[in-house]
Amino acid sequence: MLCFIHHMKERFDILSATCSRETTKLYSTSFSLGIYFLNKELRAPIYAIYGFVRLADEIVDSFHDYPKSVMLQELKNDCFMAIERGISINPVLNSFQQVVNQYHIGHELISLFLKSMEMDLEEQSYTPETYEEYILGSAQVVGLMCLHVFTNGDANEFARLRLPAMKLGSAFQKVNFLRDVNADYQELSRTYFPDVNLSSFSDADKRAIEQEIHQEFNEALNGIRELPRSCRKGVYLAYVYYLKLFRKIGKVPAEKVLSERIRVSNGHKFWLMFDSLVRYKLNVL
Hints:
The protein has 13 helices and no strands. The protein is mainly alpha-helical.
């Protein structure tokens, strides 16, 4: 009987991992392809992290007809209870708690992430300080969660790669801000960039933001080169996708960024995948 119970729990864990994987595939082609090129044993943990992040993101971005603040607080409570118990009936939280407990992901990283999600519940006029706080919680700590998995408990490796991982998360998030600036401003009344008036968003404003992102991409690439081989290829692929999107945004004027969502087609993403794999094999990073 005990063996049967364990078997049923294993099936639920498989269901949980499947939910996180399918959540990632549904919401992000770029990250899904990047994760596919991680070593096999790393894929489920990274899917689990993305699935949890997406749950919180959906609450604040999409559930406009529902009590978002209440639901986010419930997610927070359920998350930490799942970590403490080592199980959750929510499949995405169940797979996430397994990763948190297995890789000893600091609870403060989760709290910082959820704090940034709380910031999205209300209209914000960001100062440089609150902007940095938001970037830290919404993106940089997610990079650090993934780094815990990539370094598999090696504290020295984690410390050595910590700053580049944060820079990569920050660059990705700021590219997202530029890509989504129209929807964030028009539909969600959000203006993330400090000291920028989007009603008069200029090419000079855009260039200043892009210079900051360019520097972060450069610093992140140095860290990617130092990652373990088990994850380097997948992280590099995600980097290549975002760099391509960033360069595409860089070629259009500020007024176009404000009026439409710039994107890289799925067909072009697959071409970038093959190109980046060739570069990786030739060690041209």
